[in-house]
Each structure stands twice: as C-alpha cells, then as structure tokens.
Automatic annotation (TrEMBL):
Pfam families per record: DUF2383
UniProt superkingdom: Bacteria
Domain DUF2383 intervals: 5-114
Record organism: Pseudomonas kuykendallii
Residues annotated as signal peptide: none
Name of the protein described by the UniProt record: DUF2383 domain-containing protein
Entry-linked InterPro entries: CHP02284, DUF2383, Ferritin-like, Ferritin-like_SF, UCP029477
Amino acid sequence: MDNKEVISVLNDLIETSKDGEEGFRTCAEDIKNAELKALFVSRSQACASAAAELQQVVRSLGGDPETSTSVSADLHRRWVDLKSIITGKDEESILNECERGEDVAMKSYKNALSKDLPANIRSIVEKQFEGVQRNHDQVKALRDIARAS
C-alpha cells in the first residue's frame, strides 16, 4: 500500500474512534447507573486516545488526519436520542445501542486489518482492535445482565 492508501484506512479508523468517543459519551450522559456511567466515560476517553494515536500516525505519514465523526454515527446518535425519549432511557436500550456501535467499530477494524498495512501500523491497529473487541464483549455481557433483570 502507498502512503495515500494507508492514510485513507487510518482516517476511516479515526472517524470510527471519534464515533465511539461520542457514542460512549452520549451513553454516559443518558444512563443513571453510576458504575455504567463511569465505564462509559472511561471507554469514551479510550476511544479519544485511540483517535489521537492514529492522528499522530497520519501526521507522521505526511497526511491530514480526520478530526470529526461520521455522518452515519451522527444520525445513529439522533436515533438513539429519539429512542431514549420513547423508552425512558432504560439501561438495556442504552446498552443495545452501545453494542450496535461496537459492532460497527469491529467491522471497521476488521476491514482495516484485511489491508496490506505496514507492520508497524498493523501492530497499532491490532492493539486497538483488541480494545474494541473487549469493549464489545463487556457491553454485550452488561446488556445480557440488564436483559435478564
């Protein structure tokens, strides 16, 4: 892959990370459970750190890093807001939306890892993908607990 293609892949992941940052922040604002609120704030900060790390890599490659969220994530958050109003912002609904967001993030990272990335960049993306996988699994487990309650 040439630098331009690598930058494009990384900018997609930056957008995904920014989406996660905003998504988890929105969930933290909407949830009443203090433990879940703290978890979502922590995940939001981790997504922000991931985006910043990728932005630095893009800069080192001579590119202009993405700085915003995706239009589809903005639309999804509006849907979550509307759905939250209707459902009363219950934990299960919020966790469902978080899991859906993490499904999208996993797909984005898997797509990036299917590319022929330089080894040093691949290792960063793999490390971040492991974090996305952990987020997804934890949110899914919490959602299953909320559903069982």
